[in-house]
Specification:
The protein is of the alpha/beta class. 29% of the residues lie in helices and 19% in strands.
């Protein structure tokens, strides 16, 4: 999988992709993440990528030309399954979306900044708009990092135990059950006996029951359907 991220702050994204699971995915050749500095595609001497809003109002808007120049440049070398814009008014990101997108190959992610991007870019180039929640960040970089992390761990061969992702929260519309490790007793709290039994069928049943109960208590909205 290849993900090209268009940003005005490439340095902000260096660290998230050079550690832990994403680093392993890159080293295995399963995931390629490229950071593209939008300012490199500005035609002005000052490398300007934003300007004042038509109609007035607070906040600068990312200009059409640099974004268009960048996307057209990238599309010369390959086709993309999706050109994604990270924005608070996009479709709310969830596990089902990540599962579906993980089956695709090439993505461009455009990170918004300032007041956002010129609407015409959304009309001309963007194929999918994604939000990570009902709040506003200073830019789309952190949202893009979350997207890459969420999708990268689903790629076959990335996790040491590929079944691990199948039991994550939201994979079956349930939250994950509680988990335990050594010691068997910590302070006065003990590991549930069923988990020490070695009876796989009963353990799986217990985990499902716990996941269902936790979902009912914490996220009943997931059970509406």
């Amino acid at each position: 999988m290849r993900i090209d991220i268009i940003t005005v702050l490439p340095d902000l994204l260096e660290s998230p992709f050079n550690h832990s699971i994403l680093k392993r995915a890159k080293e295995k050749g399963l995931l390629e993440v490229n950071l593209i500095n939008l300012r490199d595609f500005s035609t002005s001497k000052q490398k300007q990528v934003d300007d004042y809003q038509y109609g007035g109002g607070a906040g600068m808007v990312m200009m059409c030309e640099p974004i268009s120049n960048c996307i057209e440049h990238l599309k010369k070398d390959r086709s993309y399954d999706e050109i994604i814009y990270m924005t608070p008014d996009g479709e709310l990101m969830n596990q089902k979306m990540m599962n579906t997108l993980s089956l695709k190959g090439n993505f461009i992610i455009l990170c918004g900044h300032y007041k956002g991007i010129d609407e015409r870019i959304r009309q001309l180039y963007i194929t999918k708009e994604i939000s990570i929640g009902d709040y506003v960040l200073s830019g789309g970089e952190l949202a893009a990092a979350i997207f890459v992390d969420a999708i990268g761990r689903l790629l076959p061969g990335v996790l040491n135990d590929e079944t691990s992702a199948l039991f994550d929260s939201f994979q079956d519309d349930l939250l994950s059950p509680p988990v335990y490790t050594r010691p068997e007793t910590f302070k006065y709290l003990k590991v549930p006996e069923i988990l020490l039994s070695g009876h796989e069928k009963k353990i799986n049943e217990w985990r499902h029951e716990q996941a269902l109960e936790r979902t009912k208590t914490r996220r009943p909205d997931l059970l509406k359907d």
